[in-house]
Amino acid sequence: xxxxxxxxxxxxxxxxxxxxxxxxxxxxxxxxxxxxxxxxxxxxxxxxxxxxxxxxxxxxxxxxxxxxxxxxxxxxxxxxxxxxxxxxxxxxxxxxxxxxxxxxxxxxxxxxxxxxxxxxxxxxxxxxxxxxxxxxxxxxxxxxxxxxxxxxxxxxxxxxxxxxxxxxxxxxxxxxxxxxxxxxxxxxxxxxxxxxxxxxxxxxxxxxxxxxxxxxxxxxxxxxxxxxxxxxxxxxxxxxxxxxxxxxxxxxxxxxxxxxxxxxxxxxxxxxxxxxxxxxxxxxxxxxxxxxxxxxxxxxxxxxxxxxxxxxxxxxxxxxxxxxxxxxxxxxxxxxxxxxxxxxxxxxxxxxxxxxxxxxxxxxxxxxxxxxxxxxxxxxxxxxxxxxxxxxxxxxxxxxxxxxxxxxxxxxxxxxxxxxxxxxxxxxxxxxxxxxxxxxxxxxxxxxx
Length: 449
Ligand SMILES: Cc1ncc(COP(=O)(O)OP(=O)(O)O)c(N)n1
Ligand SMILES: Cc1nc(C(=O)O)sc1CCOP(=O)(O)O
Fold this sequence. Notes:
binds the ligand Cc1nc(C(=O)O)sc1CCOP(=O)(O)O, alpha/beta, L-fuculose-1-phosphate Aldolase
C-alpha cells in the first residue's frame, strides 16, 4: 500500500537541502512524497543569495490540497521562514493530526538565517507542542534550551528539557556537531533515553543532512514503523547519504539520499551483467578453454565507480574460471569480493578511466597479440621486469603499477588489451578490458575466433 509523506519546507536551488533532499529521501524510502513549499531560496553549496517566502494562506492551501485528495500519513517541516508561516502550519497540523517531524532549521550551513529572529519563540510555543518528533542539532538544541551542550550527558538533559518544556513527544538531539569518533544521537521517548550511533565520517558532503534525516524519520512514520525503529533506520540512511555524498560544488557538498537504493540496485545490475557474460563463456566453452592461463582466468565487473570503494564492490568468479576437460568453466556463481588480482586491476582502471569497468585475464601468446593488432585493438605492452620494488611491496601495488604503465601509453584512456610480458616466476598474461563483462567476452571471442 502506498503511504503519503509531506514536506513543508523551502526550496534550495542547488538541490542539496530543502524539499529536494526531502523528496529524494521519500522516494528512496518508498513513500509517495508531497510538498507544501514555504520559501524559495537562491542558494548553492556555499551561500544563500536571496530568499522569498510564500503567504501562510498558500502554504495551508498546499497542505489541504494534498490532504483532501490522498490523505497524509506523516509530515516534516524544514525551513519555515516567518512566524506567520509557523503559526499557520501549527494550526493546520494541530487540526489534521498527522504525525509531524520538526527539523528546527534556523541557520544554513553556509551561515545564512533561514528563520526570522522573532519566529523562534513561535516555533517553540506553537509548533513544538503539535510535533511528534523534533530533531535539533547541537546549536539548535542550545537555542531551544538556553543550555550549553558539550557531551552526550548534556544532550540528554537538553532532550528531556525540550520534551517537558514544549511537549514534543520524542526529542532527538543529533550528535553530528559533538566531538568523538562516533556520531551519537540521543533520543528521549516516554521517559527513557536511547542512543543511536554511527562512525563519524570526515566528509565534505553534509549539506542537507538535517533535511534528509528528518524526512527519513517521517517516511518511517508514514510506513507505520515504531518511532524508535524509524529513527534507527534514518540514522543508517543518513550515514549512507553522507558517505556517498554528491562530490559537486565549492562549499559543503550535497548529501546523497538516493545512495540508499542506488547502491543495492547497482550491485544487482553488476551481478546480473556478469552472470549473462559467464553464460556466453559457457556457450563457447571449448574456445575459451584455450585461453585459460596457468593461474586460471577471472572476469570482474565493478559497480558504478561513484559508489566503488574496494574489492568488495567488484563482482567476479570465486575460484576463478578454469579449464575443465577442455571446457572453460566458472568454479561457482558470481560473488562480490571474489577476486583479488582482477578486482584491483579494475579498481585501478576505473580510477583513471570510469568506462573501463570490466576485465578478464587470458593466456599470453604472440599470436593473440598479432590478432589484436589485426583487429585494430588499442594495445598497451607492460614489461613487469621494470616494476619498482616499492610497488611490489604495497598490497595491490603491482596491479596499480601495471595499469598505470598501460594507461601512460594510451593517453589516459583504457586500452582494449594490456599485454603483461611477465617476470621471473610471473606468467605473462593478456588482460582484456571493456565497459561491461559482455563487451569483454565479445572482445575475447573475436581474439580467439
Ligand atoms: C531551503 C533550505 N532548507 C533547509 C536548509 C538547511 O540545510 P543545511 O544548511 O544543510 O543544514 P542542515 O539542516 O542540513 O544541517 C537549507 N540550507 N535550505
Ligand atoms: C593470479 C592472477 N594474477 C593476475 C595478474 O594479472 O597478475 S590475474 C590472476 C588470476 C585471477 O586472479 P583473481 O581471481 O584474484 O582475480
